[in-house]
Every structure is written in C-alpha cells, then in structure tokens.
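A reminder from the course coordinator: this example appears on the midterm review sheet, so study it carefully.

Given structure:
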C-alpha cells in the first residue's frame, strides 16, 4: 500500500504545480483592469483641469485697477486704457496666426454686434495685437469681419502689463477701471454676453 501512495505522490505534487500558473492567469486580467481604472481616473482628472482652464484664471490684477497701458489704435490715434473709465471694456489679445484666435473670431463679431444693440450700455471691444503688422491685421479683419479698434503697443507693453504669454486671452474691465475677469481660452458671444450682464447687475 505504501508503494502505491509513494507512486501517486509525485503526480499529486505535479498537479498542484499546474494549478499555480492557472491561478496567475486568472489574476492577470484583474491587474489589467485595475491599471485601466487608474488610467481612466487620471484622464478624468486631467480633463477636468483642462476644462477649468478654459473658463477663467486667477491673476493678481483681478479686483484691482487695470494696469496703466497705452498704445496706438489702427487709425493712428493714441489709446490710454485709464481714459476708458465709464464704459465696460473688453480686451481680446490677438495673433492672426493663432488657430484658436481665428476660430473664436466669428464669436467676437457676434459679440460686438450684440453689444452695439445696447447703445451706451454696450461694452467696448478692443483687439490687442500681440503679433503681426497692421497691414496683415487689416487684411484679416477685412476678410473675416469685425470693425472694432485694434491696439498696437511698442515692446508689447499691453501684453506685458497684463501678463499675457499665450493667446487668445480676454479681459473684462469695469467702468471704474477695475479688472473683473480673465478668460484664457476661446470665448463665445453667448458666454461674454452672459458674463457682462451678470457684472452689470452686480455693479
């Protein structure tokens, strides 16, 4: 009897060894699933961070008087932001070679038209040029619409004063000359109209 048991023992041990690889095969899909869940979670977090970036951004200028910045308008006259008190001012920093700038331009055209219907209550829109010669800018506006003023500044005085490094960026300054909001990606006409209406009601 003992001989039979001894002969069976190696077979049983071999069978036990065979089960362990099978166990590992069952664990592997679980590990892959956990990794997939972690990756999805990271994607959601990053997407959420990007979404928040597209709406607004903090700046030490928020709630403070707008920086003193001057420039020249496309008609050759001088522009001094501090002299625009009494009106809501929307500054859109613009580069004619910037794809998001080009994509948002029709929305700015609509926004300007919407504000014009409000008469003296409407906001003043300005494009602050960060790159390009006036002839190039004039051609862009002629081809794509929009008749609001463009501001040119020597040594990028306007972008430097507002801390703008990437475009498009849009800033809202209230009638008291205080910076109210900084938007750091493409904007829409509906978005700007709604924001300004809220500011008017709270002002």
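Designed residues:
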């Amino acid at each position: 009897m003992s001989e039979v048991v001894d002969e069976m023992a190696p077979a049983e041990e071999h069978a036990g060894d065979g089960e362990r690889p099978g166990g590992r095969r069952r664990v592997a899909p679980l590990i892959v699933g956990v990794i997939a869940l972690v990756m999805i979670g990271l994607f959601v977090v990053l997407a959420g961070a990007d979404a928040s970036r597209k709406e607004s951004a903090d700046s030490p200028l928020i709630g403070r008087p707008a920086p003193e910045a001057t420039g020249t308008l496309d008609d050759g006259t001088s522009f001094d932001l501090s002299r625009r008190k009494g009106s809501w001012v929307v500054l859109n920093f613009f580069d004619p070679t910037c794809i998001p700038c080009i994509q948002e331009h029709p929305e700015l055209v609509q926004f300007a038209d919407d504000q014009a219907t409000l008469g003296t209550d409407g906001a003043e829109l300005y494009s602050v040029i960060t790159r390009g010669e006036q002839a190039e800018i004039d051609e862009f506006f002629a081809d794509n619409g929009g008749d609001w003023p463009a501001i040119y500044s020597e040594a990028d005085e306007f972008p430097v004063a507002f801390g703008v490094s990437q475009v498009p960026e849009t800033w809202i300054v209230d009638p008291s000359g205080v910076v109210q909001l900084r938007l750091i990606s493409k904007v829409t006409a509906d978005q700007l109209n709604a924001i300004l209406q809220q500011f008017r009601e709270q002002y």
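The radius of gyration is 30 Å. The CA atoms of residues 96 and 102 lie 7 Å apart.
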